[in-house]
Every structure is written in structure tokens, then in C-alpha cells.
Amino acid sequence: MVRYIMFDLDGTLTESGPGILNCFDHAMEKMSASFPADFDKNQLIGPPLSESFRNVCGFEGEVLEQAIRFYRERYAEKGAFENSLYQGIPELLTRLKEEGCVLMIATSKALPLAEKIAAYFQIDPYFQFIAGSLPDGRRGKKQEVIEYLLQENNITDRNQVLMVGDRRYDVQGASECGIKTIGVTYGYGSRSELEEAGAYAVCDDTETLYDAISDYFQRQENMGEGSLQ
Hints:
Elements: E1 4-7, E2 14-15, H1 17-30, H2 49-57, H3 61-77, E3 84-85, H4 89-98, E4 102-110, H5 111-120, E5 127-133, H6 142-152, E6 161-165, H7 168-176, E7 180-184, H8 191-197, E8 201-203, H9 206-223
Parallel strand pairs: 1-4, 1-6, 4-5, 6-7, 7-8
Antiparallel strand pairs: 2-3
Helix pairs in contact: 1-3, 2-3, 6-7, 7-8
């Protein structure tokens, strides 16, 4: 059985919070706007940009598009690199790759930026395929990104595929595509958020993540065909 593992990028492979929040602040300053005083900015890490600006700030139409442009102009220049790999990620990817797993990235981030970040941190050789949103905002939802990845790689047996992510968007997007998700709490989502979204398992570090991945595929092999309930 071929084992396909899709990783989210922000909050799963890289600790991207500082760069993302700095770019949100930049965009809001350019828009002469501000976040609510009691707003937890960490909620901005994970959802598509359009969703965050729309739901939190009430931006629509051209105003929304302008805010996204301001965000991306700083992100491409600085924000993408105000970032670091989580502890244990290179070792985890090496181990999975050596065991024959096919590794991919499924992110709501614009594809050119996702590719740039993977190359910057020298993790791109681990991944067979990187899927992201389009620069014009299309394919922005996680379900759309995952479905695109599956179609482009001709993956038909979705029991062979596992998603790894840190937010409910990862769990929900994968579920809409018929795929299980392992959530990680070292990112920006809480255990309760991931469990309530329906994660197959929730892990606190890369060691337990490796064990959960192995457990999932071992159960699939033992069950043969059919989805894991």
C-alpha cells in the first residue's frame, strides 16, 4: 500500500506566526484600520486571507482585495522569512521518506510563496508535490487545495492518504475530501479545536506524530479495503 501524507505548512511544518502577524499589522496600518482590542491575533494563522479579513474586519470587494495586496507585498519581501522550522520536522520527514511514504504539502498559502518557503528551509526535496492557492485567490479553501492535489496525482484510494495540520480548517477540508487528519497542538490550534473538528488523533510533538501516522496506516493495512471509522 502506498502511503500518501499531506502536510499543512503554517503551524505544522513551520512556525510562521511572527511573519504572518507582522504582515497583517502592515496591511491594517495601510488600510488605516485596526483589530478589535480584545482580539486574539493567533486566530489569523491558518484560515485563508480573504476569510480573515472578511470575518474579522468586515472587508469586502475592492477593499478586501487591497488589504490582501498590502499583506502580500510585505510577506513576499520579509514575512515569509520571519519563520522557522518546528523542532523535529527534518528528522520526521527523513524518517517517513526513508520508509517509502510519499510526502506532499497542501496549504491555503499562495503556491509561489509556499514553494519559496519550502526551498528556503531546504525541505522541498522531501516533497513530491506542493499544492497551494492561486495568486488571484482561487483555490483558496483547504478542501479545494486537497482535491486539486489528489486529482493532479491521480490518487483514487483515499484510505491511502492522511492529512497533518494544526487547525480545524485542515481537519474539515480533508474530511470533505474523504480523508482523515492528524492534528498537532504545537501549531496554532488547540486540542479541543482539533478534536471537535473530528481529527483522527491529536499529537503534541513530532515523536507522537510519527507514532500516530504509523498507527493509522497499520490499521488500514490490517483492515484491507474500506474506510477507517
